[in-house]
Amino acid sequence: MHYLKIKRLISIAVFSIFLGCSHSSHTSALHPEKTTFDPQKHYSSDLSATLKKEIVLDRTQVEKALARADAPLRIRMVEVFSGTKLSRRYRVMGFDKTGIYPLLGLKVGDVILAADNFIIQDPALFPKFIGLLPNESAATIHVFRAGKELLLVYSIT
Question: 92: domain range?
């Protein structure tokens, strides 16, 4: 019985060292550097780290783009699995090329993060937001594209 306890403790210790789960130093044989929080690094919740693209749209141009397509607000979005349901994100997989989305500068592969600073928790909400654009004077869409965050800022005149 004593032998089994010692064997179990040794296996836990070896497993902890291998994964770098040491409580005292937070280092491992695989990653000898210390793990620290870098306050100078920008994280995804920091909007100052994003690129900004300003787009001026003509209101009649927006209305025509919404009227011209067969299904003007149809967009195919799939959930990006991140391991947690707290931060759902949706990737654009396709849309009508003659509709509003190319005019807005969206591309297939963009991950929609927010629209007018509201996090998109349901893919059905994003087309509804786009449908309201002819009544707005300004709007923003926050996307993740090619490994970088991009803030699309629209002025609708």
Answer: 47-156
**Quick check: 23 pLDDT over 70?**
no
User: Tokens 């309201």 appear where?
Assistant: 132
For the chain, the straight-line distance linking the first and the last C-alpha, in angstroms and rounded, comes to 80
Residue type, 107: K
**Per-residue pLDDT, 67:** 85
Alpha-carbon gap, residue 74 to 118, rounded angstroms: 20
- Please tell me whether residue 129 adopts helix, strand or coil conformation: helix
| Average of per-residue pLDDT across 96-105 | 90
Q: Which residue has the higher pLDDT, 80 or 4?
A: 80
CA angle centred on 92, ends 46 and 42, rounded to 5°: 15
The half-sphere exposure of 13 on its side-chain side, counting CA atoms within 13 A, is 6
What backbone torsions phi and psi does residue 149 show, to the nearest 5 degrees?
-85, 140
For residue 97, CA distances in Å to 40, 71, 106, 119, 121 come to 40, 11, 10, 25, 25
| Domains contained in the chain, number | 2
**Angle, alpha carbons 79-55-103 (nearest 5°):** 60
Is 42 among the domain residues?
no
pTM of the model: 0.66
